[in-house]
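Can't attach files on this board, so I'm pasting raw text. These are the components:
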Amino acid sequence: MSIGLEHYLILSVILFSIGLYGALSKRNAIIILMSIEIMLNAVNIAMVAFSRYIVPELLTGQLFAIFIMVVAAAEAAVGLAIIITIYRNRETIDATEINLMKW
Amino acid sequence: MGLEIAFWILAIVGIGAALSVVLLRNVFRAALSLILCFLAVAGIFITLSADFLAAVQVLVYVGAIAILIILGIMLTREVQRGSPANRLRIPAFIVAVAFLGVVAYAMVNTPWQIASEAPLEPTTQALGAMLFGDGGFILAVEIAPILLLVAILGAIVLVREK
Amino acid sequence: MDFAFWLIFLLPIFSFIIISVFIRPFVRPESKVAGYITITALIGSLALSIWALTEVLAAPHHVVPVESIRWLVVGDLTINIGMTMDSLTAVMLIVVTVVSLMVQIYSQGYMKGDPGYHRYYAWMSLFTASMLGLVLANNLLQMFVFWEMVGLCSYLLIGFWFHRPTAANAAKKAFIVTRIGDFGFLAAILVLFFNTGTFDIGELHGLAVAGTLAGATLTWAAIGIFSGAMGKSAQFPLHVWLPDAMEGPTPVSALIHAATMVAAGVFLVARTFPLFAHSTEALTTVAVIGGVTAIFAASMGLVMTDIKRVLAYSTISQLGYMMLGLGAGGVAIGIFHLFNHAFFKALLFLGAGSVNHATGTFDMRQMGGLRKIMPWTYATFLIASLSIAGIWPLAGFWSKDEILISSWESQPILFYLAMITVFMTAFYMFRVIFMTFGGEYRGGGPEAHGHPHESPPVMVMPMVVLAVLAVVSGLWNVTGQFGAFMGNEAHSFGFFGILTQPLPWISLILAGLGILLAYAIYSAKWLSAERIGRMFSPLYTLFFRKYWLDELYENVIVGKVLLGGFFAGLQLFDSKGVDGVVNGLASVPAVGGRAIRRAQTGQLQLYGLVMGIGLVVIILCVYFLG
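---
Top answer:
Structure tokens for the assembled complex are below.
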């Protein structure tokens, strides 16, 4: 059986779900950030796979992936800055303890 | 045939690396697994004949984001506490599996219109033409640096010692 | 010419505006300038009214056409402001302006030094203007507006001394009781408009005469209008407000609650008379209610000890006569009695006010012997009493006789009631005379200051003028001119010729017997009032307690049925039903918020989890259901 679009998409979904699980279940904010990066990568895979199999001549999916990377880089920078600031103020980066916004 | 073997190996490595990111108790090792995962994804890009993107993946993710994350781990010294799960572990797992099942089912059962042409290769020149050429994505290209600038400024302001 | 007609109504309005805007805020209440303004305006109105009367007398069919002003156009509906200038209006204008002018002059003396002097004249001007507007109106809507305005003025003036709780309550009672009748009037206006599409009285007359407007619709409309008239004219069973309305200043009682506003009900029936004329049931209702009210009110007047209350019941009784005249005879007969009654009843009230001015009380048991002290008041009061008792050749004789004759011809039962009422009228009026002016002075009321004295000329002069009118006003119809003017056939036997008829003699003898009985009891003391009272004890109690109607209305209808039943039910519905719905609706977000608030844990990952669940659900829906 040859590798087709579905294989890449399934791979993408698996990675995304792993990232989702990590993002939802981890206490450590940095791990959550990593999980989000995995999710973004999974999306990139889907983008590129669509581009490769559906419009091979156009590369639009790859362009989207490039912009996602740009945003991901910015997100990582800001996210880490936020984490470090919280750590300075509260001596922890446990996401479950960052709950000032509750009722 | 070689492509298929490469895909399988990269997919297994990528999934394994991603699982280790979320499952390993040691944060630093998780970060290293993340790098492995990024590299695997870069390989996946090559199998999809996205050579430029693979390079960018290595540069941006492995070279910049991963380093940034390791830096964050070191600065917060949270390594000792490990990577414990919160109380939502079971529901999160259920949701993730449900999401996986639903989306995978949807994707497998969608009749994709697969094009028969061979993919464009190499892609670097074509991407450059699309990004900067007429009728391309020049506006988005202009906006992206602004976003990056704002992100840099925001990060600096946030972490600056008062 | 039209503008001159309008000016009749506008002059008192100007007076009202000037007094309330300029005089009342800036001039001391001791100043008499407000009274002079009102009197000047009314002299103008009176002159114009007399001129209008001559115009109407000269006009063909006694109608002067007046252009209407278009006021309001809504779709097909055009509402005009217009005026009717016919014989009925002209007569009413004379009545209103003459009595009002006399009362205003009288008030200069009576209200002297009252802290509310300017307010009094402002409202009197407004009342006079509203009353003139009411008689001038040519459509039902306009009429209703002025109808309510006179009701408002009546309310304001009854409660003029609003710091007295009795006055404030009487004002409310008057307003609410007349409101019940007004409801019928308004309903009738709507019924008529719904069926004919017009408010114009002339057009409605045309439709009624042509037979387009007939049957049950016409009857119910007429009865609705009559219910408005019953409220305003204090007809049984809506008469209860008028005796209480005596809490107002006496000149107010003279103008509003004797001569003009209470007669507005009679005027209303007369104005819409073609509607009644084409419905036998409605006309019979008018006659029966009128006849019953006449004897019913007179019976209560027999036993009252408050001079103004006797006069109040007398007014109700006489208004009943007018209704009887309208129902049995026609416009001319009813309005002729209204015309005469206005003068002598206003005079009686002014006399009562004069007596009160001297003695400080309205209680006749504390008066007595005023004949020598107040000769002018006594003379005019006597003339008015003779007139109301129907003694030849005074004004009351001529109009009352017409009513008796017409009721004899149409409703013999009512004729007998009316005849008994003649006797009662003479009795209670002369009871007042003998108790007030005869015998020895019994000390006056607690507010009496020093010896009683004759009222100042400014009060006596209007009484004299009205006394002259009370003598001569009846002569208008001696040869049937008034009936002809109104467009009705009327009996005319001539000045002495009438004495050849049997009916007038019967009524004269009855009136004479009434006077004699009053003399026997209250002056010569041949009979003891107490002993007669004990002899007819149940009747006396019945009359004195006013047939327990006040108790029936206040305790049973208002207290039990309305407050205890209907309003209590409404209150229950309001507190449990309406409030329950509102509170329930309000508590849904409150309780719900309190419950849902728990979800706001501040745990970002929980939010993410819920988002993930939502995402799965959406995908499931889109993919499997869509």
